[in-house]
Structure formats: C-alpha cells, structure tokens
Amino acid sequence: MLKYKIFAIFCTTFLTGNAVAENTILVQSTTSTKNSGLYDHILPLVKQETGVTVYVVAVGTGAAIKNAMNCDGDVLLVHSRKLEDQFVASGYSKKRYDVMYNDFIIVGPNDDPAGIAEMNDAVAALKKIAVTESRFTSRGDDSGTHGKERSLWKRTGVNQDASSGSWYLETGSGMGATLNTAVGTEAYTLSDRSSWEVHANKSDFKVMVEGDKRLFNPYGVMLIDPVRCPSVNSNGGKAFIDWLISKNGQQAIARFKVAGKQMFFPNAQ
Amino acid sequence: MSIYSDSFAAAFGLLATADSDLMEILYLSINVSLLSLALSCSIGLPIGAILAIRQFHGRDALVGIFNALMGLPPVVVGLLVYLHLSRSGPFGWLGLLYTPQAMVIAQMILITPIIIALSCQVLEDMHEGYKDFFDSLVVPKLAALVAYIVDARYSLMTVVLAGFGRAVSEVGAVIIVGGNIDHLTRVMTTAIALETSKGELELALALGFVLLSISLAVNFLAQWLKASAKRRAYV
Q1: What is the per-residue pLDDT across A120-148, written as a single tens digit (0 to 9) for each?
Q2: Which of B105, B115, B210, B235 pairs with A22 at a CA distance of 20 to 30 A?
Q3: Same domain (yes/no): A173, A230
Q4: Does any CB of chain A come closer than 8 Å to the CB of residue B192?
C-alpha cells in the first residue's frame, strides 16, 4: 500500500508544478537586483497589470548570460554592457533595452589603511590600495561587478592578479558573500550601491569612494530569441519587458526605496 | 555569545508564529528530501542486498565504486544534472530545470550510493555470521535475506537516516538545479545561503537552528520507534 502511495506522490510531483506553465516566465538575473528586494517590490505589480508570473534565478551576470545561452530562461536582466552587447550581437536576442541604473562604490573599514576616504577618483583610489598593499576583496566570478572592477584596475596600470592571495583576495562568490569576506578581513571592495545598502553585516564599514563617472552601473533587459530557443515564452517575456520600460514600470522602479533611499533610477528610452 | 541566543530566539519566534514563508520552505525541504529518500531506498536497498549475498565477477569492484560514490561532491552532481536538464542538454525537452523535480533527481544521485554502500555492509555482516548455519539447514537465499533484514532492521534504519541527513542538509546540488527561486524551489539550505549572502547572519543561523531541530525530531522519532518496538518484543 505504502509503495503505491509513494508512487502516487512521485507521479503527482512529477506531472504537476512544471515551471513552464502558461503565463509564467523565468528571468535570469543578477544577485544585486534580487537581494535588494526590487523584485519583491515590482513582481506583484507585474502580475497584477500583465497577468504574467515571474520567477527569478539570481546569479552573477556571467553565469546568467551562460544560462540564457543554454535557453534556460525567457528573459535576461543583467548589468554588463559589454557582455550584453555581445549577447545581442551573437544572435541570442534581437534587442537590448535600457531599464535603469545606479552606481558602484568602493567600501572599506573605518580606519581606512589606504587613506582613500571621500575620494571621487576610483582609479586613483585603487592605485593607493595597491601601493599600500591594503587588502581588497574581488568577486572573481565573471559577474558584472567583477567586470567593472577589472576594467578599473586596467586603468591603474597595476597588475593586481600578481598579488592574488596576498592583499588581492578573489572570493569567487556573490556580492553578499564578498562583502562578508571584506568585513571579516577588513578589506576594501567594489560593490553596486543596492547590494551595499541592503547588506546587513556592515560592521564599521563605510562608503569610501563614490561619484566617479566611471562607476556608472546601467542595467539592460533582453528577450531571449525564441527562434534560437523555442522553449522561450515570448508573449510572457515581451509583456514583462514592455511593462518594465513603460511609464508604470519605470515609476514603480523609481518608487522602490531602501531605508528611504532610491536604489535604481529608471532610464528607458 | 549573544549571536546564539538572538538566533535561537529568532528561530523559536519563526516556528512559534508558523511564519508562512518559513513553513513553505520547510515543507518543500522535507518533501523533496523524503521523496528522494524513498526513491533512493527503493533502488538502493535491493541493490545493496544483492551485493551483500551474491558473489559474482566484478562484485567487489562495484562495492568499491559505491563506497567511493558516497563522497560525491554535491556541486558536481548539481552541475551534471544541470547540464542534462538544461534546455540545451539531452533532457531539456522535459522542462525540468528549476523545478522541485530536478532537485529530487539530484538528491537521489547523491544519496543512492550511501544507501547501497551502507546497507550492503550491514547485510554482508549478517550474511557472514549466518551463512554456514543457514546453508546447513538448506534455507533458501531469499528466506535468509528476509531473516537478515528483519534482524538488522535497526541498523538499516540508521542507513536510511544517514540518507535523509545528507538529503536535507546539502545545498550545492539543489541551488544549481533548483535555482533558489522564491515560492518555487527555495528550500532551507538555499534560504540559509541566501540570508548569509545578504549579511543577515542572525536570521541565517536561526534558519540553521530550525533545520537542525527538524533533523533532531526525525532522529528522535526513529529512536522512539526502536525503543517501543523493543519493549513490545520483550513483553
């Protein structure tokens, strides 16, 4: 009897609850948008106004793009302009849409061993970190933030990889885990603004560098090409993207606040 | 340290108020783990029994392989299952990636070798002890096996508990194939990983306490079953 019951449970679990139900889409996205709580804020509105139920897988931008290239998802929402343009150019999506932006910041411990507090030149600040050999934690995971960090190091002319394991620490993890490591080892790190604001384990850490134009952090959204990936729910995906870049969607993004501060600034064309 | 008391209080609060998000996550965790355990046992126990009492060419090598597979790294299993269930993989047409079913498959692969290897060892020990005796009485192999299983039932229960423990506590596999999607594939371990990544260390630890208490409850239940069965046996 028990055997049949188990078999019945097995069958019902296997035959129902399929993620690709009608009017359901899967978004491959970044930890920064997810952990900030943005999706918790906008997804009920999406459901209400378009009828689409959105599920979000939050990984680094690099991983999200790879998953999307494997057709595991319907929509891609990430923050690495270069990789996004490559994604479109290689035919995985017809078009990239601007959605919103915020900025990156360099955070660090209050005693500030590199003396970079209140600088607004990110490249010069990184140079000082390298010269003083102050600890710096890097995402090291091909995420959008990691890409930005590497491009900034490139401008400093410092070969930070040569110091990997001494003062330059690559965590190979998400933003939150990297912030935890930074706090635990009194290291500087580059973070997107929203991940930092919502991160609870801040210890005595402060924003050290902000306001550099090169710290611009734009987010783009793309429908995965249904010709390339026939499993894509293109109606649902289009409805979600159209809503995001509509007046309603853009206002909803602007209304999202953490501790009274606006986290993302809409910039759809 | 106050982190323990704070987390413990938070865990108690979550359980006492039957926090709806927590209940959903807890339900899915237990569901996925029990289902994969049941499937693994239905595959693993018979294989373990055959390996224990049958001698055939390559048997020792097989036992060695299953013993080694007990140490399968969850992330590797997760990765392999991801590659097979991905839309671009051989079983992509099933549409199973990022579903609880995918998590069950991954956990089955993780715990079936544990069930096989441990049950094989338990039954082999029985077989070595009783083989000559049963042979002298010309007891059929199947009847002997039934006797072994009945006699070793408590050891086999520990085998099953070991499988459950592995299933309910691993995070590496389910976070890759499940995706840790809210209200769909989030389980206790992936929720703990998420809260840790948000720096909500107290809440993460509180969830850890909840998971630990589930494990304790399951094991106490097993202990109690054993004790009450033994009491009845001696009446």
Answers
A1: 999 999 999 999 999 999 999 889 999 99
A2: B105
A3: no
A4: no
Q: Give domain limits for chain B.
A: 2-234
Place of tokens 């959008």: A144
CATH number, domain of A39, equals 3.40.190.10
Residue A14 has its nearest CB partner, among B38, B92, B101, at: B101
pLDDT at residue B152, rounded to an integer: 93
Q: Is A158 strand, coil or helix? A: coil
Are both A108 and A188 inside the same structural domain? yes
Domain count for chain A:
2
**A114 and A193 share a domain?**
yes
Question: Angle at the Cα of B98 (from B97 to B100), degrees rounded to 5?
Answer: 100
Please give the structure tokens belonging to residue A191.
């973070």
Residue of chain B whose alpha carbon sits nearest to that of A11 = B101
Residues A115 and A156 in one domain: yes
B39 in reach of chain A (CB within 8 A): yes
Q: Is A54 on the interface with B (CB under 8 A)?
A: no
Separation CA A206–CA A119 (nearest Å): 13
Chain B residues within 8 A of A200 when measuring between CB atoms: 198-201
Residue A13 to residue B198, Cβ atoms within 8 A: no
Contact A218, A267 (CB under 8 A): yes
Strands A75-78, A53-59: pairing kind: unpaired
User: pTM of the entire structure?
Assistant: 0.83
| ipTM metric | 0.76
Q: Is A24 on the interface with B (CB under 8 A)?
A: no
Handedness of CA A6, A8, A11, A16 (dihedral sign): negative
CATH fold group of domain B2-234:
MetI-like fold (1.10.3720)
Q: What burial class does residue B106 get, using C-beta atoms within 10 Å of its C-beta: 0-12 exposed, 13-18 middle, 19+ buried?
A: buried
Domain containing A191 equals 103-215
Give strand pairing partners of A56.
A27
